[in-house]
Design a protein that fits this description.
Blueprint (H helix, E strand, L loop, with lengths): L3 E2 L4 H5 L7 E5 L19 H13 L2 E5 L4 H8 L5 E4 L4 E4 L2 E4 L7 H15 L5 E4 L4 E4 L6 H13 L7 E5 L2 E5 L6 H11 L4 E6 L4 H14 L3 E7 L6 H5 L3 E3 L2 H12 L3
Parallel strand pairs: 1-13, 2-3, 2-11, 3-4, 11-12, 12-13
Antiparallel strand pairs: 4-5, 5-6, 7-8, 8-10, 9-10
This protein binds magnesium ion.
Magnesium ion binds next to loops.
């Protein structure tokens, strides 16, 4: 099935929300905020913030699902009333406190070891190493030789005998995480079930959002739940994401247009 442009099919895309308990799952980087060279410089526009706040007052659940630490995502979005899942499904915030899934804890030393090895190997290059508590990322979007950095980082990790981590490759960065079976998809599934959602719209732009799209489709095929997957196209949109998308948005700017329209639609 080919994904349709969302802005040309607005009413159709959100129609289920008038009939059932509905959810909205949003990635941050590349979905709500433009991708920038330094992750800490990314921002969310006031228009997106306002639209998401309005939708949170109407929908059963609005959840931010990000690779950033949950607290960092919350600070960036700046809305108290949302649910936040961070570190690719391993962290969440409840009553103001950050919790890390206990299955991730036994691998803290392994992640730390991989981090030290990558720092040693890539510390003097133009790579940006983002430390995220239970995981870390190596960014090379603006590196002179991105492939060399990726190779260097992966090699540094591989050399660590018995180091129990998993590596997820995203757009111009790699994520290094505990080897647990938690991801954006497991987060979406558990929230759809705990909130008894009849429908959800899920938006993302990168490889780790594929898990969320896939899990939503799986749920939809085995229950009365329905999902609408929206891929935000930036540079090099992963093919696997497009394959599972129902609709596409061309940019973060189009996402702002869509959310603003929805927030103003009764
Ligand atoms: Mg993203």
């Amino acid at each position: 099935m080919t994904a349709k442009p969302l802005l040309a099919n607005l009413e159709e895309a959100i129609a289920p929300y008038r009939e059932t308990a509905s959810g909205l799952f949003l990635d941050i980087d590349g979905t709500l905020s433009e991708i920038v060279p330094l992750p800490h410089e990314a921002t969310i526009s006031p228009a997106i913030r306002a639209a998401v706040a309005t939708l949170a007052s109407r929908l059963e659940l609005v959840c931010i699902v990000t690779g950033r630490p949950a607290a960092n995502g919350k600070r960036m979005v700046g809305l108290e009333q949302l649910t936040y899942v961070g570190n690719h499904g391993m962290e969440w915030i409840q009553e103001g406190n950050v919790f890390t899934d206990r299955t991730a804890a036994p691998y803290a030393a392994d992640v730390e070891r991989a981090l030290e090895a990558v720092k040693q190997q890539c510390g003097r290059t133009d790579a940006i190493i983002e430390e995220k508590a239970c995981s870390f990322a190596v960014h090379y979007r603006n590196s002179a030789d991105p492939q060399a950095i990726e190779h260097m980082a992966l090699e540094a990790i591989e050399k660590q005998d018995g180091c129990r981590v998993r590596v997820l490759t995203g757009k111009a960065h790699i994520n290094v995480l505990p080897p647990v079976t938690l991801n954006k998809g497991t987060a979406v599934r558990s929230l759809v079930e705990s909130h008894r959602l009849g429908w959800a719209l899920i938006a993302g732009d990168d490889v780790t959002d594929i898990d969320a799209f896939r899990e939503a489709r799986d749920l939809a095929s085995t229950s009365g739940f329905r999902c609408t997957n929206v891929a935000v196209l930036g540079e090099d949109c992963p093919e696997g994401l497009l394959e599972l998308a129902d609709y596409t948005l061309g940019s973060v700017g189009e996402m702002e247009g869509f959310l603003t329209w929805w927030a103003h639609t009764p």
